[in-house]
């Protein structure tokens, strides 16, 4: 009968209802005053941490909201926290008020009804968002439906050391180069998000028609569509750094490998990362970036609010501030973050648009024109299958 | 009474946590709409291609690291004279205080193909690129074993030194020597077995810990596949919530694996004991070992060198500007990282200190109260919180604590730290109490002294070294806790350790180095005091100084 007690714990009611009307902004700003918002965000980058600290100062000044940055090493930690709160029926007063999130973490939370909303389109600064030009209303092809609010754009670029190599234009050329220069390239080990991004990028570049990836994966299609990827990886892996026996565990770990002259090429999901890293003496100043001829994958970073937060108003105020031209200009400054903006220049005041134009993006950062075509993220189900398969084929030796 | 409270405080959370983990493992996970009882999750664990190698790796690193640590520790102890022991006591604090993660990073900075050693070679032979060989993350887990051994030897020595005084080792050795045995043989025959008995529980802890360690295995261990415990953490972190059930099953498998290795270890213990006893009965004097042990004994002198190397490389990286291979020094020095991080460091450090002092203090008092009652907590009970893979039992516990209405915060974090700290404190003290010579009490009682006077004037002063050791160990254990602080604190209680691990995922060696350094400093203070304080307290108790 002990078991049945626990059964009751796990079965506790899980229905949440929002008392906040996201559309009534004045009421929200008023309620937000005095609230403390615990923002769970990846804490692995000092520049991101410094930016979040600045956001905290600004929302405290303007709205009386106290922002606490909970530094995560993995966003999934926050997902499991909300999940266990839901398991135990803690439907109010949850520990997390806001999460920096995207991709499969978002899909999982949305699927399990762990999110507050919709709220994003009701934020006053939503008016500035580049809805048509940037993928801010779908997250890895999953419609956001207002359950998360964008705050930065990311696009795959490759960082390379000009002292050692020339840019390559496609994944096929990358393979040729790696075969000619064994041991001088590697990528983060999936399921690290940048590692799986590399696999997706390779797949998108290797197949003729990436449009098929927008639909959820099906058994009939999977083997046929992904065959070129596996053939390509079979050829690449023996030529990787450490012969593919060891992989860097995170994206930033690659920076150290370039600095140590162990590898010459690395993938990044932030066009400004190389410039920022050069400024921070993490990379040699001979590093530049390039994109592939057919373009590279891009997506947005979002913030979402758990369904059981007690500071939803405060979190919405922070989400709104992140969309302000002031915050976006600061985020795009390579000396601060170097993240791409989600705003539409045409919707901004002349003054703000000029301020964006005046930013010096840094030595290694490509201009928006040079960044070229942004390719869509495949549906998350592709990534899950590919990451699993990679694990079986290359994750165990 | 006290014992019952402590046992409930230690075992209760584990049982709650285990139920919270066992239910998803056998298919009951209603939060994501899964109520399909069965062993499917276990089949998934075993079907994972890396299961065999990962399990083998866990077993091998656990056994190898433990055996090596004991052999080296005992050689060191055997070779030490009274002065050597005093010196060792001084050196141990800092070595012990270094958190596993900090040691792991320092080892990477030293012996990786891009590390200092490789740079020195490169200067001599003219490499422009680091050699493309796997030293860190080798498939046999050798560098992981090295890292564990570097950390576990000081731990075992520390426990042994705390347990030695009541064993009257020097008198025993003197007696043996009078019979014509060498230092080494005398130590092995007269001290090794009773000493091993006194530190047996710490040995099993080392074994369980080496098998289930996560942070050091991430830093130094192989990745294709990783050790089983690292893989469980990875499953736990999967955004696909269904995979949590596999993680839960993996945690149960890990637990069974630890128990199986314990059985193997019991066998090893028996064989080793029989060998020693047989050799003793034959009067074998072990001539060759004598000379070898003296050489090993000198190694103690290099402890500070090792310590300075570890801290030095962390210090250097934390101030480094751009630093390419194969340069021996960075291009420049900068305080950038320290400036950037200064704000967060203060609160992180003070949080860690407040939690550590409260938890270690309460644990030490509880331990004394339990031991004074004359009762003993069965070692296997103490064990429970330490052998259950932390990540699994904590997730179950998190569910449970939220359910009974315990809110995240300092108090909850302190409570869960207590679960991990108390066993170490009690284990440290229990050995010393067991070895305590009760005849002192009887003499004092015969002189008409009451229980309290005997406790205050006789027992506690004699046991003050292990008591202070116990507090310091407790503090260090508390400071180093990562998952308990993160999960039970709901992420709202940031300590130097949670911040350090979060930043470690960013891979900037300067940031890693600065946090690892401060993490070490946070733990080093109390341990230094623990090593030095008894000598100050024993100013007027000459007899104890040589104990």
TrEMBL record, chain A:
Name of a matching Pfam family: SBP_bac_8
Alphabetical UniProt keywords: Signal
Highest taxon in the source lineage: Bacteria
Keyword Nucleus assigned: no
Residues of the signal peptide: 1-18
NCBIfam families documented for this protein: PRK11622.1
Protein name according to UniProt: ABC transporter substrate-binding protein
Species, as recorded: Marivivens niveibacter
UniProtKB/TrEMBL annotation, chain B:
Membrane spanning residue stretches: 57-78, 90-111, 140-164, 243-268, 302-325, 345-371, 380-404, 410-429, 460-483, 512-538
Record InterPro entries: MetI-like (IPR000515), MetI-like_sf (IPR035906)
Top-level taxon of the source organism: Bacteria
Statement: the UniProt record of this protein carries the keyword Transcription: no
Principal location listed in the UniProt entry: membrane
GO cellular component, one term: plasma membrane
Topology versus the membrane: Multi-pass membrane protein
Record localization: Cell membrane
GO terms under biological process: transmembrane transport
Domain ABC transmembrane type-1, chain residue ranges per copy: 55-265, 345-530
Cited SUPFAM superfamilies: MetI-like
Signal peptide per UniProt: none
Keyword vocabulary terms for this entry: Cell membrane, Membrane, Transmembrane, Transmembrane helix, Transport
PANTHER family, A to Z: INNER MEMBRANE ABC TRANSPORTER PERMEASE PROTEIN YNJC, MOLYBDENUM TRANSPORT SYSTEM PERMEASE PROTEIN MODB
The name this protein goes by in its record: ABC transmembrane type-1 domain-containing protein
